Structures are given as structure tokens and as C-alpha cells.
Amino acid sequence: MGTADSTGEAERLAALLSTLKERSGLSYGALGKRLHLSASTLHRYCNGDAVPADFAPLNRFARLCRATPEELVEVHRRWILADAAREQRGKGAGGAAGGAAPAADPGTGADLPEADDAPKSPETPDTSETPDSPSAPRPRPRPRRRLILAATAGVIPITL
Predict the structure, then answer these.
(1) What is the pLDDT of residues 138-157, one digit of tens each?
(2) DSSP code of 8?
(3) Which of 9, 12, 26, 143 is the most exposed place for a label (fewest CB within 10 A)?
């Protein structure tokens, strides 16, 4: 997915969130109080200006807006696509993507590089062993991927 597609994914998620918000009849302030989020943050989500790094706030938002089970699945599906597009854009452009693309929710730390992803200094020799070596360290598990897979696995049986 390219940069243009990532904005499109965020816009599709935002359109669904806006529909749910309007249907609820609640203001951003009222929703924010119940969700323990600022009205400004909710507004950014509903406009497509930001995509949260975690699905939990959107899940609570959709449930508070009385989303149907099908709409909950659709919110989750659109969030996965928008979040993946945001991460792709960050990796593809080295974190210097255009200003019009949605950013991660501030303060989440989602865009911080992991220790394994940090660029190595040219002065530091590469001491990593080959993957076939028995003493080579195993790659760190990715808890976020596990969380997404577990959440998706939990959603699929509900829809069957």
C-alpha cells in the first residue's frame, strides 16, 4: 500500500466512525467523558486526521455508539487496514511522509523504532551470527502482531 492508499484507508475508517457518532446523537465531549479520551482526540479519529495505534479506544467508541456486531467487525477490519497503511508509510518513507497523512495517536510510542530496527553505526562491526548457527539469538516475538491475530481470531467465530 502506498501513501495515497494509506490516507484512503484512514478516511474509510473515519467515515464509519463519523456515521456511528452521528447515529449515537452524542457530542464529542459526552463521548470523550465516557471513554476517558479528549473530545479533540475523538474528533481527529472521526476526521481521519489520526489513527490510534491500539484498537481498544475504537472498540469502546463503537460499542458506546451501539454498533451492531457486523459494524464492530467492520470497524476492526478498517482499523487494521488503516494502521497497517500508517506503519507501511512510516517504514517506506523513513518516517518523513507527507503532512497530509494521518499520524499515530500522540503519546502511544507506536512509531518509536525497536532495538532490533535501530540502524547500526558504520563504526560498529556487525557481530551477528548466521541464522543457521545454533548459538544465534532468536528474533524477538512481535507482541502487536500476536495481539492483532488473537483479536482477529476472536472476531471471526462471532460472525459465523
Answers:
(1) 666 666 666 666 666 665 55
(2) H
(3) 143
